[in-house]
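Input record (Table S2, row 163):
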Amino acid sequence: MSRTPLVDGAPLPLLDETLTLRVRTGARTVVRRAGAELHLSAPDSGETTLRAALEHWLRGEARRELPARLAEIGRPLGLRPSRVVVRGQRTRWGSCSSLGTISLNWRLLLVPSALVDYVLLHELCHLRHLNHSRAFWGLVAAHMPDWAARRARLRALQGRLAL
Ligand SMILES: [Zn+2]
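Output record (zinc ion complex):
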């Protein structure tokens, strides 16, 4: 599984954009976006330090972006989770509990928004059908006719769960 190397000039996929990482040694740990660049500076440029700083920044972005987009997709469908949490699952993009809590992986920010929308719709449909029955897929298909193509594209990007 390929991880994005955290070196100066490396590309970082962020939804429908590709940012360029600018890595530098600095007195403090700072992650700051400037246009299409993401500036990453830390006292030591070790992979572990940089990765932790990048993850912290991405989690913050995910908490800003994902619950809002989930609400936007669910509203016209009358589907609203009781709670939304952003987590760092290693093997899945999202999940839905029997209590109506939807958990979303912050790493969703690393895939194109059309695929994020598929995951969000998928989890929202679980609020009505907590299984992968024919009825569940029927509901998904009613709101996203090309869901299968999106799922296939997402599977091809499964490696991004390793960041
Ligand atoms: Zn599912």
